[in-house]
Every structure is written in C-alpha cells, then in structure tokens.
Here is the input.
Amino acid sequence: MSYFDHNATTPVDDRVLAAMLPFLTSFYGNPSSLYRQGRIVRSAIDTAREHVAALVDAPASQIIFTSGGTESNNLALAALAPQGKLAISAIEHPSITEPALRLKSLGAQLSIIDVDADGLVTPAAIDQLIKAKPDLVSIMLANNETGIIQNLAPVARQLSANGIRVHTDAVQALGKIPVSFKQLGVQLMSLSSHKLYGPKGCGALVFEKGVAITPLLLGGEQEQGLRAGTENVAAIVGFGKAAELAKTELAQRSAQLLALRKLLEEGLSTLPGLSIFAEQANRLPNTIQFGIPNIDGEMLLMKLDQKGVAVSSGSACASGGAAPSPVLTAMGVEAGLAKSAIRISLGLTNTEAEIFEFINLLKVLVCQA
Ligand SMILES: Cc1ncc(COP(=O)(O)O)c(C=O)c1O
Here is the structure.
C-alpha cells in the first residue's frame, strides 16, 4: 500500500511509541497526585511541554495541552465576547469556520478575509481589517489542502500593532517547516500531535502572556485552570517526544519531503491538462493538490484506493461531500476543476519507487476515465 495522506494523519514514530508505553503501564499515576508516582508523571508532562515549547520557540509556561487541533482552535475563539468582532480567512479548517459561525449565530460579527488565486491573504484585505478593527483575527499558517504557507509574520505584526489579536492554526505547518511563535508575532497558536508522528487526541494552544482565554472545560485546575480534566499523559509524552524528534530532524525531513514532492511534480507535469493548485506559491514540502479537467476527484480516489493507494480528495474532514472544496472556491478555482481535486501529502516513509508507480497508475486510470 502507498499511503499519501499524511496531512490527514501520520503513523506514530516507533521512538514516540517507546516513550509513551511506560505511561500506559508502569507510570499510571495521576499527575495531580502528591505522592511519588504522581510527581514522576507530572515531571514527564513538564518535559513534554518543554519539548513542544522548544519546537515552537515559546516559553513552556505559555503552552496548554488540549485534545488536538480542533479543541485548540475552538478554545482560541472562545474568548470572543458575545457581541465581539471576529475575522477569519476564507481558507480556514472547519474547526475554525464552524465555531466562528456558531459565534455569529450568538451575536458576534463575523467577516471573511479574502485570499488571492494562490490562497494568500491580500494586502487590500489587511487594510480593510485594520479599518474594521476586529477583536480577533484567525489566519492559518499552512493550508491543509493546498499546502500554501501564509507570509504571516508581517501581517500579524501589522494587525497586532493596531491592537488586533491574531490567532493562527499552525497544525499543518508544525514539523514540516520552522514555526516560531515569537517571530510570527501572533497571540494564539494551535498545534496538533498526530500530524508530526505523534499520537492522535493531543494538541496544544500557545498563548501570549496576558491574553484572555475562556476555558471550554471546567472542573479542575489542570493546565493553569484553562483546560480541566485529568491529562492524557501518554499522549502528551508522545507529543513531546514527537516534537523533540521534529526539532532535531526538521531540516533533513523537509529536504527529504521536498525532493519527493519535486519528483512527483515532474511526473504530474506529463499528464495532459493537469494543474497543480497554487503551484508557484510557497507550499509545504510534502503537499500537492492537483486537478484534472473532466475527472471526478472522489471517483479517482476510490479507483486509487482499489489499487492500494491512499490519497485525499481535499481536506480529510470534508471528503464525502459533493460540494467543491471551499478552499479552492475561495481561490477562484472553477467548480468543475475543484471537484476533480486530489491531494497528495507525502510522509517520511514514502519512497521514489512509490512516486513512479503512482504516476504510472494515475496515467492508466485517467485514460480509462
Ligand atoms: C489545518 C488543520 N487544523 C486543525 C485540524 C484538526 O486537528 P485535530 O485532528 O488534531 O483535531 C486539522 C486536521 O486535519 C487541520 O488540518
């Protein structure tokens, strides 16, 4: 089987699993317990927090663990006052768009920030934002479908200088490109463990000191009282290990993925009519989304699946829906071409041989279609 869907999720690294296992067997104490078992477990959580902090260049005291990117995104938006003003980019993940729509239904003002044909927030949209002065702006760092990377630091600095709080969903960027909370200049940032060879069900929210956070879960003092509930210790330890490994291996991982991506792009360029979305934009080293005129993306996905190849037709969370991807629609991609979209997201175990096989298979399937 060729697994080309690493933006949906990644396998747990063996070294991550090894780090986690003792916390499911021997060290099962509750980190809030005051006796030795509890203290050992507490210290493992602290170490994990240090590793995540080092990966994102932020103080450990400004990181709280959550159940994943979805919860972190919901938590980031939860502090908005009932009549507050929120602006989100047009290409956000549903874990931003849906809570944003909920807030709107409860009385908040919601505006959508336009993107250009590459999926990048436009300077004109930023000027408009500065005039409208929302309380909170959410712009993702890297898009899960196209892989485009926003040039976020100058935008965030401009907005922050105008008193506008900025959140970024860095779930897809983490572990693939350098992510520095300090250099980005945002006030809130969401992370997820299972996109970087850590376990599912674990993530984090990074926050600037003094930024108001309204807990979604109440009933305990865990995570500075901002996220109640006994910690998912093994998963947190796994996330920490995944972060530690990503930090030391980041440059080599990115280079390896980019080399495979280039090979894949060369192969794709030989298919008549195929276009790679945002091809010339700065994209994640592992991600390619393409469309082929008159091809049904979902159908192609199923045919590839029958041949043992796992790809996505867009965002994993959106697959199954008949509507074209809102991300591609926001970029002005015509509906027919958007519906043909296939996303390949490469990972560390993919090989050149798999890429060559995939291109050959794709040529056969497209001819048959
Ligand atoms: C950009 C982005 N944000 C948030 C999430 C949600 O993260 P999690 O699966 O950890 O809840 C995803 C998952 O696909 C994502 O791609």
Q: What stands out?
A: Confidence is low (pLDDT under 50) at residues 315-319. The domain at 2-9+250-368 is CATH 3.90.1150.10 (Aspartate Aminotransferase, domain 1).
